Recover the amino acids of this structure.
């Protein structure tokens, strides 16, 4: 069965700092990978996704993530965070080409200091 | 296009009662998934319905059940409520084909069990 591990439960950064949130998954086959974000008081929304092709994917609001197959990782990055990036971030995975459920990590709560 | 809607938005129940939550997916989406979100546990998958059939199921007790109607609307029922059932219950819908893997979330129903 698939599982997703997010290394940091709570991250505090100052504005303009660089961000990297770790995500590792366990599954032997090919996968689809996602990062979702939940801003305070808002719905969960898709930040970016990887289905195939270029392992470096770009999402909304300047976020990007790199799929490293050999490391089973899909880390989220942003070169310079803003106060408005304060939110909870969830990594998710599902098995490609199967009608399998999407598994989410436990989330990383990011707090940006102004 | 209207987003995923969930009703009610807030519920307060007492232990032993039962509750029914409703979800209307995005028009044209046939898959509806339900998640339980609690602090520290992230999103835990409850079940997924596709074309009125349960396609996937998470590791929750039988007190949690669901169904989907011919118009793709879905309901989730929790019987014999326990204090630990207090959570945000999220519904997500997705389309078919490759986009089946991208989920669109509703605002959630906040359930408090006293």
């Amino acid at each position: 069965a698939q599982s997703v591990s997010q290394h940091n439960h709570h991250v505090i950064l100052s504005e303009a700092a660089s961000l990297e949130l770790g995500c590792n998954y366990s599954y032997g086959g090919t996968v689809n990978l996602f990062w979702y974000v939940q801003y305070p008081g808002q719905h969960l929304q898709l930040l970016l996704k990887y289905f195939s092709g270029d392992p470096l994917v770009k999402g909304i609001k300047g976020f990007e993530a790199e799929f490293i197959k050999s490391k089973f990782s899909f880390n989220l990055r942003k070169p310079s965070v803003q106060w408005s990036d304060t939110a909870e971030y969830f990594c998710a995975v599902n098995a490609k080409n199967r009608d399998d459920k999407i598994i989410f990590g436990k989330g990383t709560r990011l707090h940006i200091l102004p | 296009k209207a987003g995923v809607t969930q009703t009610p938005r807030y519920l307060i129940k007492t232990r032993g009662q039962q509750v029914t939550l409703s979800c209307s997916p995005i028009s044209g989406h046939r898959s509806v998934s339900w998640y339980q979100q609690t602090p520290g546990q992230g999103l835990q998958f409850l079940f997924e319905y596709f074309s009125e059939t349960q396609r996937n199921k998470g590791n929750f007790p039988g007190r949690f059940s669901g169904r989907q109607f011919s118009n793709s609307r879905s309901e989730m029922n929790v019987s014999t409520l326990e204090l630990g059932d207090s959570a945000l219950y999220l519904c997500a819908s997705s389309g078919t084909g490759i986009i089946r893997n991208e989920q669109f979330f509703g605002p959630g129903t906040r359930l408090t069990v006293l």
In short: The mean pLDDT of chain B is 92. The two ends of chain B are 37 Å apart (CA to CA). The interface with chain A takes residues 3, 33, 35, 40-45, 48, 50, 55-56, 58, 90, 92, 98, 100-108 of chain B (CB under 8 Å). The CA atoms of residues 67 and 75 of chain B lie 6 Å apart.
